[in-house]
Amino acid sequence: MIARLLLLAMVLTLGGCDAITALMADPKAAQRVADSKAIGSACRYGLRSIEDCYALNEKASKAYVFEGWKEMDQYMRENKIDGVPSRVGKGGAAAPAEEIIEEKAGSDAAKDKPADGKAKPKAADKAAH
Predict the structure, then answer these.
(1) What is the pLDDT of residues 26-42, one digit of tens each?
(2) What pTM was estimated for this model as a whole?
């Protein structure tokens, strides 16, 4: 009986202790929180709106993404840091820096000339030599 009362007293006493709750916390949950805050911070530094950040990171916790975004916003304002515009679109692929225009396939002159500007000999010309 005394052992049960002693055990009950220890549980009630240690139940409010922060160290015990920290030891019992799931490390994966803490990692997800840290990742969500980092996502929010990166979105703010990348000059993304919080709504775009939510749309691009649907699996991250919105509350922690917002918390990270807000912390980075405050930090950037205090230290007068300008954000860097993001180049990645919503699909996840980088946006092209410039448009690439290819020549039409019907041009024989473009096929026969290598990069140095000299014309390649044709197969019939090779057989004659």
Answers:
(1) 888 889 999 999 999 99
(2) 0.52
CA distance 5 to 13: 12
Rounded to 5 degrees, φ, ψ at 115 are: -65, -25
Cα(75)–Cα(53) distance, rounded to whole angstroms?
A: 18
- Closest among 34, 104, 97 to 71, alpha carbons compared: 34
User: Of 52, 89, 90, 48, nearest to 72 (Cα)?
Assistant: 48
Q: What are the structural domain ranges in the chain?
A: 26-87
Phi then psi dihedrals of residue 88, to 5 deg: -85, 130
- Sorted by sequence, the CB contacts under 8 Å of residue 42 that are 6+ apart come out as 72
Strands (E), 1-129: none
pLDDT at 9: 78
